Task: structure prediction
Amino acid sequence: MNLKCLVAGLLLICSLGAHLPAAELRLYTEDHRPLSYLQDGKPSGMAVAVVEELIRRTGDTAHIELVPWTRGYHQVRHQADSALFSTVRTAQREAQFQWVGPIARGYTRFYTRKDAGLRVASLDDVRQLGTLAVPSQWYSYEILRQQKLENLYGVSTPRDMLRMFRHGRVRLLLVNNLTLDALLAEQGMHAGQLQAQFDLMPSDSYIAFSLHTDAALVARWQRALEDMRHDGGLGRIHRHWFPDADESMLADLLR
Result:
């Protein structure tokens, strides 16, 4: 093959490559109202609304799928062009993903029944109150296990935790305040029956991209989110889904 043919062939390959469509993003989320859930067979929720707007603004091709948390977590750890939301960003998870966010700001709080008359101000108090049930795939379980909380008990799902609390098998509930109302409603309960105790930690939610995803794409999503923060798009979505949200907390997220 002469040099002219070789150069022409390389140019053709480059030209074809430049016109190849970008890979479709696989975006995984779990059933965790009101952040994400299925409605009429389609993903819905506050976090879904944020992600759909980011897809529109970036122009990327993406598919949102509701899956069990452990499956989504595994997929994004090993699969290129994928992401998991809403994922709380912790020191333990920091190096496992590329992060876009935060898309929501909340607090992971301890709660007791109001009629129990308990005062819980520290993890030392938590240690004195018997079994603490927490879903074993949650970030809060990871944090408390590192704290060597002897009475920590891992359960399979948030519903298991709520059922144990409703039936009095555990005296404490540890939940992100953004999802508290929806979790209680599934068990026929409401927030008026609870007493907030102390905050374990802030729980900012992010979109966690696979390490095998192009960093330029991740940066593009972060820029689009910053645009949403500045032009009011993110605030409008939050107020739609959380009309009674703490305005100071929302202002902190949008700052």
Q: What stands out?
A: The CA atoms of residues 64 and 148 lie 36 Å apart. The mean pLDDT is 92.
